[in-house]
Fold each of these.
Amino acid sequence: MEALALHRLQFAFTITYHYLFPQVTMGLALLIFLLKTMALRGVPSANQAVRFWLKIFGVTFVMGVVTGIPMEFQFGTNWARFSAAAGGVIGQTLAMEGVFAFFLESSFLYVLLFGEKRIGQRGHWIASLLLFVGTWLSGFFIVCTNAWMQHPVGYSVLADGSIRLESLAALLTNPWAFAAWVHTMTGAVITGSFVMTGIGAYYVLRGEHLEVARRWTSVAVVAGFIASAAAAVPTGDIQAKLVHSRQPVTFAAMEGHFHTEVGAPLVLIGQPDMERLALDNPVVLPRVLSLLTHYRWDSTVTGLSDYERDLWPDNIPLLYYAYHIMAGLGTLFILIMGLGAVLLWRKQLFRQRWLMWIFMLALPFPFIANTAGWLTAELGRQPWIIHGLLRTAEGSSANVSAGNSLFTLLGFMGLYALLSVLFFFVTTRIIAHCPESGPDTDREATTPDTVTA
């Protein structure tokens, strides 16, 4: 295998594993804030839920930090030419993420975990708000970095080929960044909601910690339904239209749209045949792709074959499948959470053991959907590492051999396997021994300071 392929595989592995954790913490941050707001209004079970989920959040946050650090180093080791060319741009947002967002979320996570009795319920609520802000701000700076690689703005290219940032405001207000950030955050809330409902359903099925488990499950079902619907419309629709307008080759490839058509159909399922440039066994909705793209049934959608082949993504089948897995699972999430929301409104949710089983068994699927979504974004940008400016082959390190990359890749795999075992052990111990309950904790949640806030 060539060095470039191993550079890409190593970064894909490390970032995919890393993102398993931030998507949980970004989703839980909102849900913890909502639960803390309920606790501030005098709901003891909500405060117990906050204490429980802060422990899960803390362990997951540590895993995110540990697995995120190696990616920063890979910019210098595996992608040195990319860093030399664009470091002056991407370094801005990466530094802002560390200085502003990371310290904000890590500081107030400590306060939330260990300072509740000292700062009181109002202070604890403010800390939960700042944790939420810091976590989502961290996500914005990271997504903003990626968005510039997808749609570069506010730059100039110098005589030596390096890229200089001309406008920080343009970088931070990149329309691609805002659309991608909102879509990413909705995906994170989906993950956090399914994690909450899955563990809540586990307790309900076992008949343990019923009051607190039902409390957080109810919050997660409502948030999960809203986020699942928003992931499709408007956030997913806005993102798809940006891809169509700014990366039309990517759009055609991920939709499996090989030939230009008037009144193009939307493909629900099918297998791409790259030799014939066709889909095998397609199931389609006639004219729907034209409608979604241009709001007209008879509009023309340009096919992949109309673009030069050296602009095509280098793994179209994987891109196509990743996109359709994301979209298919997103539809399933709407159905599951929508059904849960209806039953919650009718006060029948926790009587349906079959739905509790669905919640519990569905817990892994948002991780798959979010991973597929990022695969869609990154595979779709190829063959560019900075779209339209720098090809991926020109951004890798010339002095790092295939053997070096393979050695470190195997090392990361072994290390992350050990970390996975440790994370599983710690989280299952938390689940086995929590939520905590008792007169002291309940009384703290219903002090006059809490009720009158």
Amino acid sequence: MMMFRMFAVAALAALMAFPALADTPLAGAPEQERLSSRQIGAFLRNIQQPVPQPQTKPGMGVRAPAGPTDAQLRAINLTRDDTCRWANDGECDDPRWGTGACTENSDFSDCWRVALGMEDDSCQWANDGECDDPGIGTGACVQGTDATDCAGVAHLRNQTDSCEHAFNGVCDEPGSGTGLCPPRTDRSDCIGRERPLTINDHFFGHDDRVLMDTAQFPWSVIGEIDMEVSGKCTASLIGPDIIVTAAHCIHSQGRLDARGVFRTAFAREGGPLEARVTGYLISPNWDHQRFSSTNDIDGTDWALLRLNRRLGDELGWLGVEALVRERGVQGAMRARIYQAGYSWDTGDNLSGNLDCRILEAADDDTISHDCDTTRGDSGSPFMVRENGEYFVIATDSNFRRNPDGPMIYIATRTEGWVDYLPEFAAGRIGTAGPRPAGPGKPSTGQDPNLPAPGK
């Protein structure tokens, strides 16, 4: 799911205006599906944040406290060293207290407050009611400088469920558990599944996800698609050589580029299977810039991709159902929904939901839902089960901010593309290659004489 999608167009324009940022991880991949808090924070601090004006926000004007003494640093073996390439990016990357992207004692400025337990409210956005800490908040502040706003979620900082033993009900981290997992990789079992709604992630107060066995159907046909220019998303086999994902997953810097590799069945005996993308079909109404800056065309966030191998002949594939069209809104809202994707915080494991619901079906071919999804889940399938078979009814898209409550999580319904599927599978519509043919707005590969699907 794309983080901060409302900022994507502004970020691209700003990067063009500031060539010095071209060497940062953000440059060249502003919509990368696994966009890190480092990249988001760099964007917010260096590009998006307006020049502060006196008293424009409640926390401004707070003086930063004096730095640590040498004696304090010696007590925890921390030196005043910022030689790591990620130093001064706002996020602590020391392996003892942060992400582990740096070696010990090479990210002093970002880490000393957290390391010494001296977090403060010196950020210009402190005390505005929103956590701006990297990773658990917006990333607009340096780690540990928005203490009051982040107090309720600070315990979740740098915690994931990436261990293969996550979600088993037993704490497997060293010290507090069995030691089967590395530190900070078994969050739900060691800390709990409750997620404050103020955390800058996509959970609904309680994380109900479980890990799926990718050697077993249907989880074996839900894979990861690694795009050459735009990062990773989730995709699913819906035919022998056809997968479905989100349209925003095959875009980078506002341009369509569907070159990529689909891998699935990671736990399969003999190893995973993979295939390359050879063609695509997207909505004739898709516009990446408009999608990134508005909520107007979320129902067009789908992409059918053709593969160079018929993986489905060995693994099988998911069916497709236009659930709202077939059952009506009320019938669709009563259906038990299954979902699975490669979430950023579960490492290489497929995680998902076994019992969630549609909350609303909109006229724009979208649904809102209460499945626990996050970055990396974009393109992941929402399914119903009928007579032992699984049918895709929507794919994960994005979220919308909600001033009156938790964020609203959006999936794109199959009604937008199900009528195109037979023609695309037969090779009668769609592109013959994964890249756009020329400059300018990329072609959808769509026959303009075809009626709009799902209407």
